[in-house]
Amino acid sequence: MVESGHIMRGGTIVDATIINAPSSTKNAEKKRDPEMHQTKKGNEWRFGMKCHVGVDAGTGLVHTIEVTPANTHDITVASKLIRSDDEVVYGDSGFVGIQKRPEIKENEHLASIDYRIVRRPGSLPKVSDNAIDWERFIDHRKASIRCKVEHVFRIVKRQFGYAKTAYRGLQKNANRLYALFLSSNLYMLARAGRSLQKLEIA
């Protein structure tokens, strides 16, 4: 897709989503998958794995996937999702402080990247009623680009129905996710082609 020009270069969006796993298996031992783990998201406890993705900021197509247990923090995997020629990286508030990570600071390329991380609303300074809230305006612009990553998660989970793990172990599920995200890229390209055709006809 890079060679064909469908994926642009220079910017990546990083994010992760939890894929639930069965709390127990239907075998004689009734044991949970040892490669899956439990984590708390908001007020809800989730058991399963986490799928980390790097998405092209220009097109919204997935270019990199990493799979870990659900209790792995998003920021610890971020460096593996960044391409060698990325100049800008977008992420949600879970990636605040990414520039201070040793794997980022000690790598010349990663340290030179412009990290545009959306901050938590409560951390933004308050302004008077008559002032322009530039901080929130800038964060809104960053969020409008970052949200492209949510489209691919929706396609895989809702349209392809992969909201729960299909196998035991991370590797088998990772192989399934590679195929699903490739399919989601093709789906998005097909949808974009149809939209372009309608514009040309109009």
List strands and helices in order, with pairings.
Blueprint: E1 11-20, E2 37-41, E3 44-56, E4 62-69, E5 88-91, H1 102-105, H2 108-111, E6 114-117, H3 134-146, H4 148-159, H5 170-201
Parallel strand pairs: 1-5, 5-6
Antiparallel strand pairs: 1-3, 2-3, 3-4
Low-pLDDT parts are 198-202
Q: Report the count of strand segments.
A: 6
Instruction: Specify the helix fraction band.
Output: 25-40%
**Radius of gyration computed on alpha carbons:** 19 Å
In round numbers, the mean pLDDT is 85
Structural class: alpha/beta
Strand content: 15-25%
The coarse overall form would be: globular
Distance between the termini: 28 Å
> How many helices does DSSP assign?
5
- Elements, N to C (H/E): EEEEEHHEHHH
Domains (count): 1
Give the biggest beta sheet: 6 strands, mixed
Overview of this protein structure:
With 202 residues, this protein is an alpha/beta fold. It has one domain. It has five helices and six strands, in the order E-E-E-E-E-H-H-E-H-H-H. Strands 1, 2, 3, 4, 5 and 6 form a six-stranded mixed sheet that branches. The longest helix is centred in the last third of the chain and has 32 residues, at 170-201. It starts with 10 loop residues before the first strand and ends with a helix. Residues 198-202 have low confidence and may be disordered.
